[in-house]
Automatic annotation (TrEMBL):
It is found in: Secreted. One of its GO terms (molecular function) is hydrolase activity. PANTHER family: ENDO-BETA-1,4-GLUCANASE D (PTHR33353:SF17), PUTATIVE (AFU_ORTHOLOGUE AFUA_1G12560)-RELATED (PTHR33353). Residues 309-330 are annotated as: Disordered. CDD domains: LPMO_AA9. Residues 20-226 form the Auxiliary Activity family 9 catalytic domain. GO terms for biological process: cellulose catabolic process. Keywords: Carbohydrate metabolism, Cellulose degradation, Copper, Disulfide bond, Hydrolase, Metal-binding, Monooxygenase, Oxidoreductase, Polysaccharide degradation, Secreted, Signal. Residues 1-19 form the signal peptide. This is lytic cellulose monooxygenase (C4-dehydrogenating).
Length: 330
């Protein structure tokens, strides 16, 4: 007797027609890899958001721990395009009220749900030139591009991309469960080829690193926004993906003192892939744990804690037409 069918039926339960957004597929250097839903994407059962920062669903969604059968194959350094949609491909993508950033992380492959200190940030887009990342993806047919770091080691990875919708984000979910930032995470299985040797090792734990003290998570979009502090660490500078020389000058002595973060530090040697010394990114990557980094790196989530102060009375717009969806929000 098999219980598989019953299990699957349970997992597929609660598929309600709601709104919001989810991921359709991936292109590699412009080549469409086809419908990725439950093929190479660990697709959620629907497009509803996650709001509880402590939930494992925050990482890869409610099905995050269900590995799928296929990997997107891409060479390190490839241009990747992730494509999102609302109810059907090429529709309005996500409601225009759902303004916020789009952030992308990578982790060594796991069949697990991605919980724990395994993530490194490889791309981010917040607010610039008067536009939110969500405005841009809506204008671009649901597509957002970024570059797979050129020097990462070959092997299997999970790439997690999230849209954070801040239309109810002026209040923390922990203070009012009816409000709070809405997270739309999606995790894609990748098999990366190439001769690189860098294993992304920011060891960021999303459940612990995202907090209600983070000014990018509790943020009032209805004020006159001039800048927005994107949550999470800075982009992993071992990625070769660029960051300009940071102004911070560290007189980092040769003392070998790993920075200690709240999360347990996973030795990079635990990874299945080749570990090589990361080209010293020095000040650009606060959470990268490596011997040459200065010990005085402040914890990321609190560094911007006082920069943004939500104003008192925003014009509040409810999540449009999502009354039903709210019932199953986590
Ligand atoms: Cu919504």
């Amino acid at each position: 007797m098999h219980f598989t069918a019953a299990t699957l039926a349970l997992a597929a339960f609660a598929t309600s027609v709601s709104a919001h957004a989810t991921m359709f597929g991936v292109s590699v250097n412009g080549v469409d890899q086809g419908d990725g839903r439950n093929v190479y994407i660990r697709s959620p059962p629907n497009n509803s958001p996650v709001k509880n920062l402590a939930s494992p669903d925050l990482i890869c969604g409610p099905n995050g721990g269900r590995a799928v059968g296929t990997f997107v194959k891409a060479a390190a350094g490839s241009k990747l395009t992730f494509e999102w949609y609302h109810d059907n491909r090429n529709d309005d993508i996500i409601d225009g009220s759902h303004k916020g950033p789009i952030i992308t992380y990578i982790a060594p492959f796991t069949e697990g749900n991605g919980v724990g200190p395994i993530w490194s940030k490889i791309a981010e887009d917040g607010f610039s030139n008067g536009q939110w990342a969500v405005d841009k993806i809506r204008a671009n047919n649901g597509k957002i591009d970024f570059t797979l770091p050129a020097n990462i080691a070959a092997g299997k990875y999970l790439i997690r991309q999230e849209i954070i919708a801040l239309h109810e984000g002026d209040t923390a979910f922990s203070q009012n469960a009816a409000r709070g930032a809405q997270f739309y995470p999606s995790c894609v299985q990748f098999e990366v080829s190439g001769s690189g040797s860098v294993v992304p090792n920011q060891n960021f734990d999303i459940n612990k690193g995202y907090t209600s003290q983070d000014p990018g998570i509790v943020f009032n979009i209805y004020q006159a926004v001039t800048s927005y502090p994107i949550p999470g660490p800075k982009i992993f500078s071992g990625s070769g993906a660029s960051p300009a020389p940071a102004p911070v000058t560290t007189s980092a002595p040769a003392s070998v003192r790993p920075t200690t973060t709240a999360a347990p530090v996973v030795p990079t040697t635990s990874s299945a892939v080749v570990v090589a010394p990361v080209p010293t990114p020095s000040s650009a990557a606060p959470v990268v744990v490596q011997p040459t980094t200065t010990a005085v790196v402040p914890p990321v989530p609190t560094t911007l804690a006082t920069l943004v102060r939500p104003s008192a009375k925003p014009t509040r717009r409810p999540c449009p037409a999502f009354g039903k969806a709210k019932k199953r929000e986590n």
